[in-house]
Amino acid sequence: MKRSFSRIILAVSLVSHVVAYTLVKEYSGQNFFDGWDFFNGYDPSTYGDTQYVGPLSAAQSAHLAYVDSSSGHAFMRVDNTTNVAYPNKRNTVEIYTSDFYPVGSVFIMDAARLPWGCSVWPSFWTRGSNWPYDGEIDIVEYANLMGNNQMALHTAAGCTHTTPSNQVGQTIEPNCNATDGAGCTVSEKKPNSYGPGFASAGGGVWATQFDTSGIYIWFWSRSDVPSSISLSNTSIDPTSWGAPSASYPASSCDIGSHFGAQQLVLDIQLCGAFGNPTYNQTCPPGDCYLNSVIGPGSPTYDNAYFEISYVRVFGLTNATSNGSSTTTGSASATSPGAARTGSPTSTQGSGTSDALPMLSHPLSLLSLAAVLLLSLGLM
């Protein structure tokens, strides 16, 4: 019996590491924009030269946000048809999820194209309800004609980034304190993470693990996407993905004290706090707004659009939301309220998929282990 019990303990150890996360929410197809709010108006926080258009119906009428009927992909774009006169802003979009997702979540975005061009500053990121104290995770961010994507964390004081041995990307800035502007930044070293190279490679996938042990961001160009990441799979195991592009271990940034539940955000800003100071590094000499934003929108903004296959959220069992509630049985979303000011319009809908129960009870694990050993003839 002692030998059998030892084998059961071994099997429990193996079983507990097989499937870590199950599907909580999916944004895809004709219902992609269900569950997102559209910011409406000017956002002064990043000093950009954009006017965000909302609600969804207004963005659709302006052909700035829509789902293509043939591919089922969601498009978000900068207005490239209007001749903008000085000193006006150019129309674009920003959307953010109605739900906030707790520590113990994984965010995945599959995109065919990303916005690019002079003055263009796109982002796929997350934020807590009380910035910067609840943190920010920048998953996709770059400006103008930069050659690669950048990832970053923004937090209150006390969070730093030490480059771990399992990180593929290059650490640019170690201080995550939001008052420093850039946050703790990691530059992607894999090819085709941005611009025409990303599009010609067929796009790619980002996965972000938001965990008590740290925050980890993976990028794969289309040909390298793991087979376990697909619309047909409702569970994922990040331990099978290899080294991440950006690794922020909790040893130098305590996740529980620097991050709350996170809201997903997609936007396209123009110029602004990131685009202006980097404009002349890759674009013609001159002023970002005067050179690019005003005047005809084409051809300057013909490539300034997202084409997204899906965004999915996976969760752990018994995860706790740092927003307004504690979940039991699965990591689920909460809605403590939008973090932005302005005129958001909700488009909540049918994108939810209930998380599958995990075997978190010791007896359940022992039972499964016993069945596994019996099937192998070891008991």
TrEMBL record:
- Signal peptide positions are 1-20
One Gene Ontology term of the biological-process aspect is: glucan catabolic process
- What's the superkingdom here? Eukaryota
The record's annotation in Gene3D superfamilies points to: 2.60.120.200
Q: Where is this region: Disordered?
A: 325-354
* GO MF terms, alphabetically ordered: hydrolase activity, hydrolyzing O-glycosyl compounds
**InterPro entries named in the record:** Beta-glucanase-like, ConA-like_dom_sf, Glycosyl_Hydrlase_16
> Does the record's keyword annotation contain Signal?
yes
Keywords, A to Z, come to:
Signal
Ranges where the GH16 domain occurs? 25-319
Which PROSITE patterns is this protein grouped with? GH16_2
Keyword Signal attributed: yes
Task: Cite a single Pfam family from the UniProt record.
Answer: GH16_XgeA
PANTHER family in alphabetical order: GLYCOSIDASE C21B10.07-RELATED, GLYCOSYL HYDROLASE-RELATED
* Protein name listed in UniProt: GH16 domain-containing protein
| Species of provenance | Heliocybe sulcata
Per the UniProt record, the lineage of the source organism begins with:
Eukaryota, Fungi, Dikarya, Basidiomycota, Agaricomycotina
